[in-house]
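One thing: can you check what follows?
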Amino acid sequence: MNIGYNKEKAYIAAQGPFTSDTIEDFWTLIWQTDCTRIVMLTNLYEGEKMKCLRYWTDDRETGIDIGPYHIQLDAIDEYDHYTIRYLIVSKEDDEIKRVTHFHFTTWLDNSVPNDLSALICYRNLVRNGLTSSDGPIVVHCSAGIGRTGTFIALDYMLDEGGTENYVDVKSYVTSLRQQRGKSIQTYEQYVFLHEALIEGFQMLRQRCLSIL
């Protein structure tokens, strides 16, 4: 399994599982790192091309078994641009863990989302209630570099800019690529990152003004 670890804010950038072996490896990663949030930025198929195998279940009754792990759906919330699944994961006689699966469904490979505000709202939902005691956020698309890198950079710098009132996009992207090669694959994604940051900071400012 192809993964990369971002030390600054504890993300794990991962390739989407594409074989039965990598599905089990994926859940081992989730289990061993105490991850409570998965960010999925790809669809299972885009056009006729398979991008990722299904590693969860939408069946509340039976769940699925993947190696030693049992995955059960507890609840699901569906929106226009994303779906949020609340999963219960157990391992044989071990403890039960709860994992929230945030699936953004309108961002195709090598492209950018059409709706900036939808992505910002999605990102805010991912961050909502996160504490320092939570494990790393596992982020994946298909290859784990283009959409994944763009999302990680966006999330980190929205948080950084909210506290420091300043972000250095070029410097952060360079640092990210040192930890996860080829992150943010295309020029279009790099430009989109700037546009999404502007949108995110404007939404934050409007929310702050509404409180005053």
